[in-house]
């Protein structure tokens, strides 16, 4: 029975490689999106948690429920005459037109202005910032909306934006005044203010209805009372500082103090003029002595004046001139006479005597200067200046006091004017209040007739719009969508190879087989599944190109820790278990691992010695393998390497004898499997690839990236090496080539009580 027939039952759904990447159907775009999102589920969860942790509290803190507050005005179809008792409709042609006109009057500029005046003193937040919207609430919290608009303009803007609406109710006599706000108390005040001021404006225009006039007067009286109270409170606050509202006496006293300070300042300024004249006279006297009076207080200047005085003295200037002339004569004599001439010594002695005389003259001139300075009026000048400085200081102090008192007088005058204005306003308001009170008393003499326009009901909350639940649901859905999109983009940007389809589509290298991820399978089933993986790989190698498994097979990988050594050991073990005579060569001189993984005795390495001409039988190490067909177990020999002389690895492999030794060794075996260093780490792998018949590239799911595998493939293609394909290690069960055999093992495991110890390597029994 051939190997292909023997393992036919275990190769269920094995996929022999396809070189070309199949075109991706449009229907797979959705599945690719879902697949990418599921692979990056933690990104979706993280984005969801972050957005919800930030957004949900913000929504529930910043977004307040929207209260709809409604008040209504009733407009009767007819108005009975209080004298005749008959309906009076002469002024109204159509009821609908009248109702619409009254609805328009409620939002007129006159009513709006009165409402603004009525509410301006109540410190409503409605007039400070916008009242709705998440962005507006956020601005309010961050204190970005600090500009306070004009109250009337704010009301008109609210009407334009339909925050405040006035509309007749169909099939009724009501005109509803509605306001939407997050502050129901303020909305109630605004709606009531509209109702109250509309009634005040509109009813006051109707001379035929005494009842409406009475209501108008009553409302007006209340408004005037509030104004009187506010004006009285303002006057009281301003007058509280001085204990009285009459500031005339205090202001007169401050003005007298200012006048006194001004007179004293004028006297000091006149005194300063006299002192300045006296100082100037003393300075002129000092100038006549040759000493600048303005510089007498400076030691440096005094020394300079002293030196100038000495230099101008004739008793000093004449000796200096004589010394200069005699010095010139001495220089000329030194040029003419010999150095031993006694005349030179005599002239030198004379020059020294002249210099000594000059110093004596300077001392005499210095004493004369000191005597002269002692006779000047310096002390008198200094005293005069001191008096002048004191007078100037007094002037400055008086000026500061005058400015301070003047500012206080001006401030007091302003407060007095403010109090006077408030008192005048209070008097005017009081006069108006008296007039209104008088008219109210007169109107109370008439019985009120039924009102055609009246208040149906005051402002009250009609319903509540809470959008926080809707916003929260939108945020949750948006968080999921953002997380899914970010996960998909992250998956698209990830260049790691994770599935066999990724390898074929992204690199164009065919898949020979896969090995299972140890964490995705039960430990008891691991040996059987690993055996099935390598049976599938051997089967695919036999089927490739119809040429069978190459004799010298090189195993390498683009980078480190991508499973090439484990794959080489397991592939050699699997081939030996099928009855083949196999040699496994550890071709990684720089990091030899095979001897350590197979527990070979220390000093088992001998590949370097064989390449240098040592006998092969003395370097090879044989082990017995446990394969899938015990009757046909073949020998498995190991030619290990050691890390000694790793620096000469390239030169050793590139020597002409290396190929000859490898070919001679390969004649003794059915298959020679060579484990090499990573392709992109060092050039040894390229030399081994040229020494072998074909190359298998191994890669590690989730670790190997597309550019590295492509570069490794291109390097091998440049030197003309045959690449059989790639083996993807560490794949999940559902992506394995033998995934259905896993189901078979699971069913078998349920019915079997015997467990096996999981090992990543196929079982090998050493010598």
Distance between the termini: 30 Å
Overall CATH class of the largest domain: Alpha Beta
Number of strands: 15
Mean pLDDT: 76
CATH architecture of the largest domain: 3-Layer(aba) Sandwich
Proportion of beta-strand residues: 5-15%
- Strand-pairing-aware structural class: alpha/beta
CATH topology of the largest domain: Rossmann fold
Q: Total domains, how many?
A: 3
Extract low-pLDDT stretches: 1-27, 81-85, 88-92, 288-297, 627-631, 749-759
* Fraction of helical residues: 55-70%
Sketch the major β-sheet: 9 strands, mixed
Number of helices in the DSSP assignment: 26
Shape, per Cα inertia axes: flat
The CATH superfamily label of the largest domain reads P-loop containing nucleotide triphosphate hydrolases
Radius of gyration in whole Å, from Cα? 56 Å
Strand order of the largest sheet: 7-14-13-8-12-9-11-10-15
What does this structure look like?
- The protein is of the alpha/beta class and 767 residues long.
- The chain folds into 3 domains: 273 residues, 3-Layer(aba) Sandwich (Rossmann fold), CATH 3.40.50; 163 residues, Bacterial polysaccharide co-polymerase-like (2-Layer Sandwich); 129 residues.
- It contains 26 helices and 15 strands.
- The chain has a 9-stranded mixed beta sheet with strand order 7-14-13-8-12-9-11-10-15, sandwiched between helices.
- A hairpin with a 6-residue loop joins strand 2 and strand 3.
- Helix 9 runs antiparallel to helix 14.
- The protein is flat and about 130 Å long.
- The two termini are 30 Å apart.
- The N terminus is likely disordered.
